[in-house]
């Protein structure tokens, strides 16, 4: 079983910045990718940024040039630097890890979510 802990959410004014962090622990044999998703009220959960074990990054167009995803210092950790925040960035942000376990299965686990609120 893999457990993810997220931190860094909060309330910020439009144009401000926040940094989200996520660290995973547990039965992780190999890392495939880690990413951040968000879900606004009444909307589906969407991928906004991800980073592979090789360091390749992908971003949703809505956050490109404003958000930066990076690997953290811990082995299975990821950060999301969010700059130039807009009210439409308001959502619950979820961390996700895709990994392989010792039995060779490809699995995924989610964090509990952290609220980001951007006021206008």
Helix fraction bin: under 10%
In percent, how much strand structure appears in the residues?
A: over 45%
Question: Could you tell me the radius of gyration in angstroms?
Answer: 14 Å
Overall pLDDT level = 96
Q: What sequence of helices (H) and strands (E) makes up the elements?
A: EEEEEEEEEEE
Q: Give the number of helices.
A: 0
| Distance N to C terminus | 40 Å
Number of strands: 11
Low-pLDDT stretches are: none
Q: Decide which structural class fits the backbone.
A: mainly beta
Give a description of the structure.
The chain is mostly beta strands and 120 residues long. The protein has strands spanning 2-7, 10-13, 18-26, 30-39, 46-52, 57-59, 67-71, 77-82, 91-100, 106-110, 114-119. The strands form 2 sheets. Strands 2, 4, 5, 6, 9, 10 and 11 form a 7-stranded mixed beta sheet that branches. Strands 1-3-8-7 form a 4-stranded antiparallel beta sheet, with no helix packed on it. A hairpin with a 6-residue loop joins strand 4 (30-39) and strand 5 (46-52). The radius of gyration is 14 Å and the shape is elongated.
């Amino acid at each position: 079983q893999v457990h993810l802990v997220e931190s860094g959410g909060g309330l910020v004014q439009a144009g401000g910045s926040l940094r989200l962090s996520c660290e995973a622990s547990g039965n992780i044999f190999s890392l495939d990718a880690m990413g951040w998703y968000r879900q606004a009220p009444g909307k589906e959960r969407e991928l906004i940024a991800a980073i592979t074990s090789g360091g390749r990054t992908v971003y949703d167009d809505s956050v490109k040039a404003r958000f930066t995803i990076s690997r953290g210092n811990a082995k299975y950790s990821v950060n999301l630097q969010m700059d130039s925040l807009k009210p439409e960035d308001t959502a619950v942000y979820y961390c996700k890890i895709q990994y392989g376990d010792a039995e060779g299965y490809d699995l995924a686990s989610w964090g509990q979510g952290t609220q980001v609120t951007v006021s206008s």
